[in-house]
Amino acid sequence: MRARRRVLRLDLEKGKGEWEEDLVAVDRSVLLVVNGFPLTVLPSSPRNLRELALGHLLGEGVISSPEEVKGVRVRGERVEVRLRGEGRMEALDPLEAAERLPRPPPTSFDPAVLLEPFRSLLPRSPVFRSTGGTHVAALVTREGEVVARMEDVSRHGAVDKVLGRGLMLGADFSSSFLALSGRVGEEVVVKALRAGIPLVASKAAPLLSGILAAEAGGLTLVCFARGSRLNVYTHPERVAGKAGG
């Protein structure tokens, strides 16, 4: 979603300024309520809020399957989720969580397939194209099929929405990878591990926390996926064999 605003554009080289109309990305603070309890407030683009809620609960370890969800109701910027049980609310340091979670399967990925989403991830994202104000995430199968693609003003929000859509579609997370436009830290790695995703790829840089969490959790982390090149930071056995390395 986009909004129009007037902006004063200053050109120091020409020594002048002009008022013009600009498009900006719209953000909201979304209240997530679980079993009647206000759980958290999520910064988000005001669309696909059902996916945001389900993906956030999956990525935080509150649920592990759609069968645990009794119902979801979106009321403006409030999302109410009813679970069949109480859910799991264990608070762990992300690195500790990565060490404790089950290791993802040894699914192999063709490096060429890992690069393909980044040729279209941003160009086909309309809000990013017109505002530059969103992050993009996609869930992609090992054969290269894009199962879900989401834009959001928040890096974590884009990931949550993709996980939520995948959960709703019954996607096989174990044979898919997460493709991202933004940097990768430990929180994103742990979200992927909780969903059972074996590989995260980004066109941007990793953070040290993301590398450490991926190493500890057995997840393959690929960054700087651009053109014909990519950097594999952890567990290269899932991709190196097909790259000749």
Keywords:
245 residues, alpha/beta, Ubiquitin-like (UB roll), Cytidine Deaminase, domain 2, 6-stranded mixed β-sheet, 4-stranded mixed β-sheet
Kindly report the name of the CATH homologous superfamily of the largest domain: Cytidine Deaminase, domain 2
Structural class of the secondary structure composition? alpha/beta
Order of helices and strands: EEEEHEEHHHEEHEHEHEE
Helix content: 25-40%
Kindly give the count of domains.
2
The count of DSSP E runs of length 2 or more, i.e. the number of strands, is 12
Rg: 19 Å
Query: What best-fitting shape do the alpha-carbon axes yield?
Result: globular
Give the N-terminus to C-terminus distance in angstroms. Answer: 43 Å
Largest sheet: 6 strands, mixed
How many helical stretches? 7
- Can you tell me the residue ranges where pLDDT is under 50 for at least 5 consecutive residues? none
How much of the sequence is in beta strands?
25-35%
| CATH architecture designation of the largest domain | 3-Layer(aba) Sandwich
Q: Largest sheet, order of strands side by side?
A: 8-7-9-10-11-12
Find the CATH topology of the largest domain: Cytidine Deaminase, domain 2
Q: Roughly what is the average pLDDT, rounded to an integer?
A: 91
CATH class call of the largest domain: Alpha Beta
